[in-house]
Every structure is written in C-alpha cells, then in structure tokens.
Amino acid sequence: MKRSRxxxxxxxxxxxxxxxPIFVLVLYSFxxxxxxxxxxxxxxHWYRQLYREREIWHALTNSLVVAFSATAVxxxxxxxxxxxxxxxxxxxxxxxxxxxxxPLVVPEILMGISLLLFFAALKLELGLFTIFLAHVTFCISxxxxxxxxxxxxFDYAIVEAAQDLGAGWWTTLWRVLLPLLMPGIxxxxxxxxxxxIDDFVITFFVAGPGSxxxxxxxxxxIKHGSPPLINALSSILLLVTFLAVFFSQRLTKEVP
Amino acid sequence: xxxxxxxxxxxxLVTVPSLFWLILLFLIPTxxxxxxxxxxxxxxxxxxxxxxxxxxxxxxxxxxxIVIWRxxxxxxxxTAACILLATPAGYCLARTDPRWRQIxxxxxxxxxxxxxxxRIFAWKTLLHPDGLVKKGMVFLHLVEPETxxxxxxxxxxxxxxxxxxxxxxLPIYAAAEKFEFRLLEAAQDLGARRWQSWLYIxxxxxxxxxxTAILVVFIPALGSYVIPDIVGGPGGEMLGNKIxxxxxxxxxxxxxxxxxALLILAVLLPLLAVLVxxxxxGEAASLIEEDA
Lengths: 256, 292
Prior knowledge:
The structure holds 2 protein chains of 2 kinds.
Chain A (H helix, E strand, L loop, with lengths): L5 H23 L16 H8 L1 H34 L3 H15 L2 H15 L5 H24 L5 H8 L4 H30 L2 H6 L7 H11 L2 H26 L4
Helix pairs in contact in A: 2-11, 3-6, 3-8, 3-10, 4-6, 6-8, 7-8, 8-11
Chain B lengths: L2 H34 L17 H8 L3 H31 L2 H16 L2 H12 L4 H8 L13 H25 L4 H8 L4 H12 L1 H16 L3 H7 L6 H10 L4 H28 L5 H6 L1
Helix pairs in contact in B: 1-13, 2-13, 3-7, 3-10, 4-7, 5-11, 7-10, 7-11, 8-9, 10-13, 12-13
C-alpha cells in the first residue's frame, strides 16, 4: 500500500512552526541593534547588560528558593499519594484520585484567583510563603501522576517479602521501596521543579511586594522593558531547559 | 490489631498528607470562589462583612457579553485547529520507525518544557511591525504595511494554537500508537479510498485520544489570560483578562470571584458532557484515567 505523505509534511511544518519563533529569538539576542527589526552585527552586549541587572538576580534567587522547597514537599506528598492510589482501592481513594486529578485540568487562572481569595479571607500576608503553598498544591498532582505511572508494574509482594524476612518498616522504606521508585521520583521531581520555576499565572495572583519571581520579572520586562534584554535572558533559559531535558532523558530513558 | 484494621491505618497514613493538603488548598479555595461572589467588597480591596446580591447584579449590567462570546469562539477555534493539525502529526509519529520516533517525540515535548512567557514573547517580536512575519507578509503583498498583526483576536488565536498544540499531539499520538494500522490496509484492500479509511477506521479507532486532546486544549483555552494580555490588546480580551483586571486594576475581589464562578461553570460543562457521553456508551469513565 502506498502511504500518504500528507501527515509527514504536516509534521515537518509543525516542527518548523514550533521552533522558528524560538530560533529567531535566540538569533536576535546576539544582535547589537537596539530595535528588533534591523541586524547590526553580532554582539554580546545584551548578555553583559543582563549580568548587571540586579533585579533579575534577586528574582532568580526567589524562584530557586520557592522551586527547591516546593519540589521537596510536593515530592513527599505526591509519592505517598501515588502509593495510596496504587495500593488501595476504596471509596476514599476514588475521592482522593478526583482531588489529585482535577488540578491538572483546571485552568491556572482559576487556581490563582481561588488561592488569592482564600489567603485574603484568612488575612494571610502575600509573599514567598503563599507562593510556596500555591506551588506545592499544583506540583502534588504532577508528581503523583508520574510516580503512579512508574508503579503500574510494581509488585507489592516484594515489600511483603522484605517484611517476612524481618525488615522493619524503616528498612523496607529505605532499602526496598525508595530504590525501586527512584526513577519515578526523579522524573516527578524534575517536572515539579520545572513547573514551579516556570509558573507565572498562579504566582502572579498570590505574590506580594518583594516576592518577585523570575517569571514575574520577565512579564514586567515584556510589558515595559527592552526587548533585546529579554531575548538574551530567554536564550539562557532555553539553554538551561534543553540541558535539563537532555539529562532527564538520559536519567529516565523514557518521558511522559 | 487485626489485619483489616492494620491495613486501614496504613491506608490513612499514606492518604492523609496529600488529601488534607488538597482539601485545604484546592477544594476549599474553589468553593470559596462561589461564596465570595455574594460578599460586598471593603474599602481596602479586601472582602467586607455581610452578604449581598450586588455583585451578581453588576455582572449582568457590565458589558461582559462580548468578552464571553469571544472567549468561547476563540477557545473553540483553537481546539479545532489543534485537533486538525495534531491528528496527522500523531499519525505520523505513530508510524515513524522507533529510532526516529524518540527524536520526533522529544522535539514535540521540548516546547512543553520551555517557558510559556518566552514563547509568547517570541511571537510578539515576530508579529511586531518590525518583526519578521510582518515584514515577510508585507513583502509578499499579503497585508498592507499599515495593518497591525498584533493586538487583535487573530493574534490571540495564533499564539493559543502554538501554545496548546503539544498538549493535543501527545494524547493523539498515545492513542495512535495502540492503533492496529493493518486495519487501514485491510480497508483499502477492500476498496475503501484513503480518506474513507481515515474517516471511518482511523479516527474512530483513536477517539479516546481525540476526546482527551479536545479536553486538554479547550479547558485551559477558556481560562487563557497571559496570551490575550500580551498579544491581544482591547480587541482580543478574554474572560481571564477581566478577572485579572478586577483583581489588579480596581481590586474588587467579589466581582473577580463572580466572574471566576462563571468560568468554573464553563469549564465543568464540557468535562461533564464528555463523561456523560462516555458513560452512555458503556465505556465507564475510563477515558481520562487511561490517557492521562
């Protein structure tokens, strides 16, 4: 049978569509011209300028603090949730599953506004702590889904065997369960970290004065700042993403 | 303690942490949105005491009809474009030989990992009057030099398709990968034309993937806020922008929560519709669980 070439052509056009804007952005970050339209020759001017922007470094620090702490907490909550969902099947777990699954489909702006209203009703001061609470809330679901995926071919008999052979629950956890779950936990952690460091919408709603994160900084630069500076910053972030994807591929071999 | 009781304790130990967190910080806040729509605002941008129907009345008075209509049609058009483009792409991915498939799949996933704001900004520079797309289109006499490609509903649509496309490709690919492609050959051997075998064999065969793709594009599209905010301008505003304006511009939280309650209902309707449709066909609710 002769296959249609149409799907292949669409796929190549789509990949062009995906990468052309990113490519142009990176190219223009090396443009010495102040304005996007004309090309004035290669230059690292915007990267040097970027290095001197103190607000960006401050925002990056905030983002890293939130991302590391939110990843750590959501890893614990997401992993226990995945174990619960996989091991038990009761009505409680059905409800639990709905609660884990729904945040994945709810538009970000709804989570942002509902958390803002919640914090406002509690008269909680907005800042890094409220951002952390919000990030853990959406990261739990992603971690739970990734770890749950890894658990599909996990046999609980191994845990029972360990316990029959005299391992306490602590030994079982550290020597049996965690090593087996490690690839899922690493993949879930990487996903949580990326989502946290990249989140803008929810963060924007629950951030207070002085708790600017990197995406919020980028947003205000897009709104008011100079475009070549954002191009340079974006190129660096793209490089970091590509490296992260590359290493996570090598670590896990297989991605969602 | 007996074994059943011990198992119950174990279940609670691993369930309670995430269950408690999500009830406190997801379920209750979502329900609060509905409650605060009936509260008056206070003078300091917070929530006042007592209950009122004033917010709901002002929602009807303010001219939201056009924004709601735009939100609906942009989300529908985005979903349609994503499905039309993602179906051939998913088919192609599923039929490529495994070595190349990994690379292609990675190329589809990478935009999903890159910063959302950066990708929108990239389009803003391209569509800008000095940008490449604008210059190219003027050069080819496709648009007049004075037409603006930015700050209208079509710019919002284009960037939404760009952003949501990977979300549509992945579930369609996942369904196509399980599809038995020999069925297409059989259909064609039996005299079906190529388009007939696609329409009557392939598309029904991957319908779960299609439904998932529709949901994961349509629902977030309804809540779009950053894309219309950056490339939309006043002519491309969506419901999300109105919510943000009530929060950040006039700091009227009850009004914002009234609009959000509307958005929650808009999101729930398609979700319930798909679930009911699936249940009717006897494919009990496994749609989401399988492809998630």
